[in-house]
Protein 1
Amino acid sequence: MKIIPVIDLKNGQVVQAIKGDRSNYKPVQSQLCSGSSPFDVVTALLEVTHSDTLYIADLDSIDNLKNNFQIIIELTQQNKSTSFWLDAGFTSSDQLKQWQEIPNIRPVLGSESHNEIDSLLDLLESDHILSLDFMNDQFCGPVEILGHHENWPDDVIIMSLNTVGNNSGPDLNLIRKIQLTGSNSQLYAAGGVRDQSDLDLLTKIEIKGALIASALHTNNIRF
């Protein structure tokens, strides 16, 4: 089971994501470090998990406000051996260009950022990551992509936004629904992971990895 720690960036700080209600996200309070500085939080998460991968959601960019790009660039420079999975609300190839020269960035294409399947399919490449975003069992984005699993890249995130940070456990029904598409992609669960027993269950149902934030900051998962 691959553990991928997560940070959500908003206004230059790491915030605590809860149930996808981004307007009410507050600066993270972590048992791993003091404060909500992205540099301190990333250092702590990588130290505790020994992970070679970290997921970044630039919420300002996803919500078409501003962005945290300078912080992200500095993070990649300070952690050159870490692969950063970055969701910044990418909807065009022009938005992706600035990241193509950064070797430890892998773009995440979030379905919620797209209204039409063509714009999403045009950007999908094998090295990109597709995030299938759901809120309360409703798909966020062009639902047709769920029927085009042959176009999915190697790595696909099953993102259950309403279970993020609410200590409810992974959405197993949603995960099973995506597994039944017959896709050959490696699947990663995001949202709701509470503890080692959840990770054991995800391993048992052959999920490749899990994206985790809250359970790490509360020390509910230890390594």
Protein 2
Amino acid sequence: MLHKQLWPLTARITARGHLEIGGCDTLELAERYGTPLYLLDEVTFRGACRAYTAALARHHAGAARAHYASKALLNTAVARMVAEEGLGLDVVSGGELFVALRAGMPPERIHMHGNAKPRAELEEALAARIGQIVVDNLDELALLARLTAEHNQPQSIALRLTPDIAPDTHAHITTGQATSKFGLPLDALHAAAELVRHAPGLALRGLHAHLGSQVFDYGPLAQAVGVLLDCALWLREGHGIVIDEINPGGGLGAPYTPEQPLPDVDAYVAAVAGALREGCAARNLPLPKLTLEPGRSIAARAGVALYTIVATKALARDVHLDQDATSGAPEAVRFLHIDGGMGDNIRPALYGARYTALLAARVAAEPEELVHISGRYCESGDVLLRDVRLPYTAIGDVVAIPGAGAYTLSMASNYNLVPRPAVVLVADGAARVAQRRETYTDLGARDT
């Protein structure tokens, strides 16, 4: 069955029992383009962008903009959709900046993040006249002061602060605690303000914090807004610096398994905007611009990964697996070996991310066996799903995995020198290649 919160808005079961995304039969797409194959549903992606824009207009009285966090997934087609929907774009490298500009994203709507921005990439950002550089540490701030010393037009910057607030999420994707590699500790704010005061080429406009990813509890986000406002008040009273933008980051989660709910973008924005409004009133601060940085909650649900089963392996009955409810005997299990894996989706191996799956040709069929879906790469940890129930599956069947739009291809590698998959954008029954499949020639192009 289709758990609607996991799949793109356009997902449905055809009369033949096939999975359809964006009006396209996924089996036909797998046949035409090969697997592994990533599908990106345009309706779902654009709809999530619009949900943020509408919620910000509804809940924040001042200026506001959502900036898509491009580290979740970026290619030219994605950047163009983001630009067309009126969002800004956050980049964390010169490569992401290159793609953003190539796609026509207005430079003034680009922010650059990162805890270790190389000098050359900062120079690229300055040359492009991007809207804001989010400064992560005092060394970077000092370098920027030198690079902009002769500029006639100051570069807008924000300071990324570490508020020492930890949300309820995996340790590998928590970024707001004091021990994180990211951000300025609060006791460095005075030194940062002094550096800015003596840097005529820099204009400190904003304060930023990011607590982590896959967050569903809005309480810590409201706390972070309060910390940023306290810092804004301190900067105004102690240094005469007026902060006109507050950015509590992104991190809103996305469901990957049936028991996880679809995040409520409107409630999330309402909570953050409400905390900002009330915090400003309590501190007698004017209402600043509100910037949010959604990534996963825009891209994850829009993406579906297709794989072909190329081999299987039956395992001995294992007393640690689920027990058969009627007989009490251990249940048999098989490995289903697919033609992709950790090279295109490292999340399960990296931090135990969980997914669900179905057979693209028999979406509504009853499950008949317990399986592990294992990848092709030479690592024992290359298992995308464990203990998933599927109809009996044979070699050549196509497996579809939802929630594959974020932090999959953006972290993909050429481990074992396997070419990375193609990305196909689907909408209204039409499919077009957004990124072609890598070739052996691509793999060898860098070798001298």
Protein 3
Amino acid sequence: MTGNFNIRDRLWDSSFPHHSSISDDSLIIADSFQLSLSMPTNPYSTRYSDTAREANSTIDLMFLRYGSTELNHYSIHSDWQLTSDHTPLSITIPIVDKIINTLKLSIQQNSEQETTFIREVISGIKNLNTLNISNKEYFENMVDNFNLLINQVWNKNMKRTRITRHSKQ
């Protein structure tokens, strides 16, 4: 979350002597989105006044993902200001090569495979011997066997579907 917040505060502008409750509200709102106030790598003013009586200030801010090691600082580019009274802010966002799974495993709703899957799972539940659950190990073994059954029935009835830009969500 970034922009011209038009809030002067000593929290981000060391030349300003006061603290504002509006700043606290901004920090609370940012925190609700798991964002925190980021500090620039080079602390310069972000707004330059064209009036002699008015001081330069820092009112352009960035709130970045809380606790992120990759996105924790931004840069202020006073040399890129051109004709604006604000300086541009920038951040480098690392883009990592990531394998995106283009296949999904599913059983189509209202299909014969769904009917078979449900029938075989119900049969597996009916065949569970729950009369002699006498200890924790027996119970865990029974649950593991049931899990194995569900996985086998799933693998037998599921269908691999390739995800494309035309796929339904």
